[in-house]
Each structure stands twice: as C-alpha cells, then as structure tokens.
Specification:
alpha/beta, 5-stranded parallel β-sheet
Length: 354
C-alpha cells in the first residue's frame, strides 16, 4: 500500500481542493478522503476529481457512524435544519486520525477558513473541533494557517509556513486567485452540499429519528427517494419516476412490504416497519389505495384495481379503489409539522453555518 505524508478531508469544494494542493505543492504526498453518508458525498465523482486535480482520492463511508452521532444528540447542537456542523467535523477528523497509521500519514489537512462560517469556522469553533477530535498537534489548516497558532508540522520544517495562506472571512476572491495560480480550471460552485441543511430533505429524516429506535443508514437512503408519507410510526415511501422506482427497489430489505399495481403503470412503494407500527391487512389496503391514486391510468379506469403486495417470499393481491386521502392518515411531510419534533429531539437551533 502506498504511504502518504498527510490525509486531507476532501469534500470536492474549492477550499478542500486548495488546501490539499497547497500541501502537495511542497512536495508532500497527500491522500484526499471523501466522506460519504446518506446526507452528503459524491462517490461517483471521484474519478473525475482525480483526473482534474491530479490527486489520489478515496471514498470513506461513515453513514452509520453519522447516524449514531445524531442519535446521541450532537454536543454542539444543530442549525435550522438538522445540520450538526461542528460535531460533523469532529466525527470526520476522528476518523481521519484513526486512518493515519493505515496510510503512514504524519498529519491531517482541512480546508477550513477562519471566519468563513458562523457555526463551525469561528475561532472558538475551530478550537473546539481540534480539541474534541484530539488532533491538536496533528491538524494543519493551510488556507488560514497564518491566522492560527503554529503547528508542530511547521515548527519541525516538514511544512514551510511561509508558503501557507492567511485567508479569512466569507469572500472567495483569494481562493479564486489561488485557483488560477494553481492552474485549476474545474472550479466547483459554492454550496454546502449537505442534505441536513435543506429543510425539504431534513423533514424526511425527523420522523425516522423520532420513531425508528435504532435507525440504520439504509433508512435515510430510502428517505431520500421519491415521496415520503408518515402517520406516527407508519411509513410509506413511493417513487415519483422510473429512476425513483429503481432506487426504491434497490433499497428493499428483508421485512419490507413492496406495493405495485398489477395491471397499470404505477409508482413502486415500500413500507418499512419502524417502532410499534402494526401493518395489518386494513392498513396495507389503505396504503395500496393511496399508491393507486398516483397512477393516472388506474384512476382513469374508474373502478377498483389490483395491487400486488410482496413481503419476503410471500405475494398476494388486494383490490382497492384509488384514494388520495388515507384513512390511516398517511400524508406527505411539511417542515412546519416537523420543526417542533426536531426541537424536542435535538434542542433549540444554534447559529447556522448557511
């Protein structure tokens, strides 16, 4: 296995690119670690990034560790969505630290810029992240290094401090200048890229944390697809397109119910049992009628339709009239309904990064 001098957290954003390449420009070997979870990450872009930036980059899946961190209630709180930005950085840096001996690395690199983000990149937050992750003597932040304490890597001469930067604040002008100097032509657009910051996505996750007990990362992957219907612990996920149907089919796991119309093109739906939800035949028929109501041809037929239900090795058919209003009370989620539940689970909002 090839060894590296440094491991760099690599989101694919401009700051992470510049930080890694600043260190690599000093003749040091740098491996980019691209963290993925149900909430962020683009593993499909790795090959393009490797080619565009001339870097070694590998994906690191921390999905379940991230879910477990959220369940434990983030120490530093969450923003307006469900984003635990400080605890997120701590988790990833701890993971990086554990991977250092695997790659022979001597220190860690991040693209953080002092003062850029209100929640996670002020001086007190940068110190908290460094200390909570136990990387005080291992972490280099090349873009703001001249605004920060000198690190052991600089003191030893391994890294030349004079070739590091003094970026500060929210602007991108200095980053764009450096990108041009480095010959970087593939410039990513600014943006967090984290679904936990987006209310439309965050509303999908709140009931899983509320009702699932010990949710798995796979639950949140399912929550990312199509339409999501809930009533208490009763959960139905339904595709909106052929791509959604394929994605939902790939998420089916033992114990799930799948629902699909027998004679008409329709959304594929999955029922995942969480908490104390009891999916008896009446509840399944209600869900089937709701699924049928999203098939225009089934509705246009003007009469009852057959819906196939599969669980494990069993398959049966129910005949239902398409019905958009669920007797069980299944409904698509609204953030306004989820906000109070979110505060009960995670406390009051802290200052947001976005």
């Amino acid at each position: 296995m090839q060894t590296y001098d440094a491991l760099a957290m690599f989101s694919g954003g401009l700051d992470s690119i510049l930080a890694a390449k600043t260190v690599a420009a000093q003749g040091l070997r740098v491996l980019g670690l691209h963290f993925i979870s149900p909430f962020f990450g683009h593993p499909g872009r790795l090959e393009r990034w490797r080619e565009a930036y001339g870097m070694d980059i590998e994906a690191v899946d921390i999905g379940q560790e991230y879910v477990d961190m959220m369940l434990a209630r983030p120490k530093h709180g969450v923003g307006k969505g469900l984003n635990p930005c400080v605890d997120c950085k701590v988790l990833m840096l701890r993971y990086c630290r554990e991977l250092m001996p695997v790659h022979g690395a001597k220190f860690l690199v991040t693209g953080e810029v002092k003062g850029q983000r209100p929640m996670s990149q002020q001086a007190h937050s940068l110190n908290a992240i460094r200390n909570d992750a136990a990387v005080r003597d291992l972490l280099l932040r090349p873009l703001s290094a001249k605004h920060l304490e000198i690190t052991p890597m600089e003191e030893s001469g391994m890294v030349d401090r004079t070739r590091l930067h003094a970026f500060h604040g929210r602007g991108r002008r200095q980053q764009m200048v450096l990108a041009r100097e480095m010959g970087i032509t593939l410039i990513p657009q600014p943006g967090g890229g984290c679904k936990l910051t987006e209310l439309d996505s965050a509303k999908r996750y709140v009931p899983i944390f509320q009702y699932a007990g010990c949710p798995q990362a796979e639950d949140f992957h399912l929550a990312n697809v199509g339409r999501q219907f809930w009533r208490g612990p009763y959960w139905l996920a339904m595709g909106k397109s052929q791509a959604d149907n394929a994605a939902i089919a790939a998420q089916v796991r033992p114990g799930d119910f799948t629902l699909d119309l027998a004679d008409f093109t329709s959304p594929l739906a999955v029922i995942r049992t969480v908490g104390d939800a009891a999916w008896d035949q009446a509840a399944l028929a209600d869900a089937a009628a709701l699924v049928a109501s999203y098939s225009p041809k089934a509705v246009a037929s003007g009469g009852p339709v057959a819906v196939k239900i599969i669980q494990g090795g069993e398959e049966w058919t129910v005949t239902v009239t398409p019905q958009r209003v669920s007797r069980l009370g299944l409904a698509e989620l609204q953030w306004e309904d989820m906000a109070a539940m979110k505060r009960e689970l995670f406390g009051q909002d802290v200052e947001d990064d976005f």
